[in-house]
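RECORD TYPE: inverse folding
INPUT: structure tokens
STRUCTURE:
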């Protein structure tokens, strides 16, 4: 069974016919070719598919595309502005938080939502904020350092 939906992704409107069982991660990757949203566990445990829905992090593997209608979706592709990389993206590059890169888009979007709510976090608050995003490469030291550096840069 299919349904026509109007989605707003990275500020752009998309009118699509979707299967009522199609997940947002599959729509983004397979239909819209937005490969920055990674498909990891497909059960909501790893955070690789994290996107922002109305400014809040969600696992796109657990959201049906039809549920995204009337919501603002931000993917990693939409974070970069006309002026270049977002401060969080820059910090991940400069501080070595990227590692293999698979978890990075979800980490960065989770960090953005967190820093929008808490611009002056402690390291412990950062660690708590990213608890739903798994990184298989490291012990998170460079990721936390990246988010702390981004917070400082964003505060000016």
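DESIGNED SEQUENCE:
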């Amino acid at each position: 069974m299919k349904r026509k939906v109007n989605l707003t992704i990275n500020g752009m409107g998309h009118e699509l016919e979707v299967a009522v069982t199609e997940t947002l991660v599959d729509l983004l990757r397979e239909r819209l070719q937005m490969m920055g949203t990674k498909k990891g566990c497909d059960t909501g445990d790893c955070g690789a598919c994290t996107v922002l829905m109305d400014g809040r992090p969600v696992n796109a593997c657990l959201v049906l595309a039809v549920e995204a209608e009337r919501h603002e979706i931000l993917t990693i592709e939409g974070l970069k502005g006309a002026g270049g990389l977002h401060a969080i993206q820059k910090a991940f590059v400069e501080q070595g938080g990227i590692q293999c890169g698979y978890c990075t888009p979800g980490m960065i979007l989770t960090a953005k939502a967190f820093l929008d709510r808490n611009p002056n976090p402690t390291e412990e608050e950062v660690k708590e904020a990213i608890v739903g995003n798994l990184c298989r490469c490291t012990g998170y030291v460079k990721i936390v350092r990246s988010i702390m550096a981004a917070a400082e840069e964003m505060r000016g």
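NOTES: Residues 55 and 113 are 6 Å apart (CA to CA).
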